[in-house]
Amino acid sequence: MADNTTDGSHHIQNDSAEAMQINPQRAKQLVENLTGISKRIDAVNKSGRNVRLIAVSKLKPATDILALHQPQSSSPSSSTPFHTHFGENYVQELLEKSRILPRSIRWHFIGGLQSNKCKQLAEQIPNLWCVSSVDSEKKCNELEKGRKALLSQQQNGSGAEKLRIMVQINTSGEENKSGVEPDDALTLCKHIIEKCPSLQLSGFMTIGAIARSKATTPENVNEDFEKLREVRGAAAQGLGWEEDKLELSMGMSADFEGAIGQGSDEVRVGSEIFGERPPKKDAVV
Ligand SMILES: *Cc1c(COP(=O)(O)O)cnc(C)c1O
């Protein structure tokens, strides 16, 4: 539901019936940016496989997300969302956004994860679709507790599914990078499969070294992305799974085209869609 106001902006009644004001110029720009990224993805995706685009909206306002999920320019009779997958890095921010934005959004948690926030994350956000930054059994166990509790509340008709999990790999070997060591990936995968029935292993994620990311072009090979492929190959073999049951999440604004060339199934693009992010202390939901 949208009604035009005198200043030309739209008021949107969302699920929580709170009015959100979207600046039409900003909305148009965001749609153009995202469309441009999609075209660049298609241009390098020679194999024609599905490459999921996660719009990384951390530190950006909820109105930016709504502008991409339900653009006002789309025909009012069409209720098909324009863009569905959004990525967030901070638990509190995601909790707040998920409460005021439509349930048809598929949220990805891609940020540094603390064990003591996992249960809440998996239980309180029924449309949390995937957690991509999982790097310990303890965090898996807490996510399992939360999603199990949510799934058992069937009477609330939440429509929640098993929570998809990507194991984050420290492919660059940098000490300050999160993620499990490549050699420990299989053990964590087995833990998820055997001990966490409310979770579903869906693949591997890496960020990689910044320097390599900046040097990535569609022509040259990024070692972090090669490493992630190797991890998948070894895990698939160890589990007796087909490789294509395990997705690769690699590629951000600076290197997504190269990542797709190296087999990425999912790219996480923030600043190229939303622009520079404000410092965390200045961000408003
Ligand atoms: C912030 C972030 C991104 C997006 O980064 P951009 O360079 O803005 O595209 C992608 N992945 C992760 C894990 C992030 O934290």
Automatic annotation (TrEMBL):
It holds the Pfam family Ala_racemase_N. GO terms for molecular function: pyridoxal phosphate binding. Residues 1-20 are annotated as: Disordered. Keywords: Pyridoxal phosphate. PROSITE patterns: UPF0001 (PS01211). Residues 83-278 form the Alanine racemase N-terminal domain. The modification N6-(pyridoxal phosphate)lysine is found at residue 58. Belongs to the pyridoxal phosphate-binding protein YggS/PROSC family. HAMAP family: PLP_homeostasis (MF_02087). Pyridoxal 5'-phosphate (PLP)-binding protein, which may be involved in intracellular homeostatic regulation of pyridoxal 5'-phosphate (PLP), the active form of vitamin B6. This is Pyridoxal phosphate homeostasis protein. The lineage of its organism: Eukaryota, Fungi, Dikarya, Ascomycota, Pezizomycotina.
